[in-house]
TrEMBL record:
InterPro entries assigned: AB_hydrolase_1, AB_hydrolase_fold
Record-linked Pfam families: Abhydrolase_6 (PF12697)
Keyword check for Hydrolase: yes
Entry keyword Hydrolase: yes
Superkingdom of origin: Bacteria
Lineage of the species this protein comes from: Bacteria, Bacillati, Actinomycetota, Actinomycetes, Kitasatosporales
GO MF assignments: hydrolase activity
Descriptive protein name: Alpha/beta hydrolase
Key words of the record: Hydrolase
């Protein structure tokens, strides 16, 4: 599937941004302009089932294959968050970026989160008060974006998650130089995953106090964690 994309900047180097579940390219509205200011042509995608992209079968293989079908080969930098990090990990061997950054990647999540994921679809109808209460550190622009992206999201993409996480999705090794940025206050990932990732060859940095959507919870902390990678 050819995905909908949005671009910022006209630099010679390409950076790719891949969002998490329930979101789309608009979630990067603060990150992308900073990268464009550093000389990148930034390409944000809408994953299958999200934003203006098509709907269809939902699986790790489909999400990864769509990225390969849509994006230019050998970008300078790819950044994926949560579900987007899982999709990127499945595509990275074919995209061959110079560097990959995975933000709180949904590779190996806590059993109680797997059990609850079947109910993610109900979040489609979340209102402003609910989004604000769950994300007290977000600014109003990010709350606006969340409501807009929820409106354009297919909740069927969440109903497949329990089956997907019947097995771990953690890569055996980094295919390219790879950084994992973890949410210090996140509750998604399996405890001990950070040490496991270091053993597998990933560089791991943690943004203390940040929740799962690190770049919206602590934008400065997230950009600081990218030091040396962008």
């Amino acid at each position: 599937m050819r995905l909908h994309t949005h671009e910022w900047g006209t630099g010679d180097r390409i950076a790719v941004l891949v969002h998490g579940i329930m979101s789309d390219h608009r979630t990067w509205h603060r990150v992308a302009p900073v990268l464009a200011g550093k000389g990148y042509r930034v390409v944000g995608v809408d994953l299958r089932g999200h934003g203006a992209s098509g709907r269809g079968e939902y699986s790790p293989e489909a999400w990864a294959g769509d990225l390969v079908d849509t994006l230019p080969e050998r970008p300078e930098l790819v950044i994926g968050h949560s579900l987007g990090a899982m999709a990127l990990a499945g595509a990275v061997e074919r995209l061959v970026p110079a560097r990959a950054v995975y933000c709180d990647p949904a590779w190996d999540i806590r059993p109680r989160v797997v059990e609850a994921s079947a109910y993610f679809a109900a979040f489609k109808s979340a209102n402003r008060a609910m989004v604000r209460s769950l994300n007290p550190r977000w600014d109003e622009a990010d709350v606006d974006v969340e409501l807009a992206t929820l409106a354009d999201w297919d909740p069927a993409s969440a109903r497949v998650l329990p089956g997907i996480y019947a097995v771990s999705r953690t890569p055996a090794r980094p295919v390219v130089p790879s950084l994992v940025i973890l949410a210090g206050a996140g509750e998604l990932l399996r405890p001990g995953l950070d040490e496991d990732l270091v053993r597998r060859g990933f560089e791991v940095r943690t943004v203390e106090g940040a929740g799962h959507c690190v770049y919206r919870d602590d934008f400065d902390g997230f950009m600081g964690a990218l030091d040396g990678w962008i």
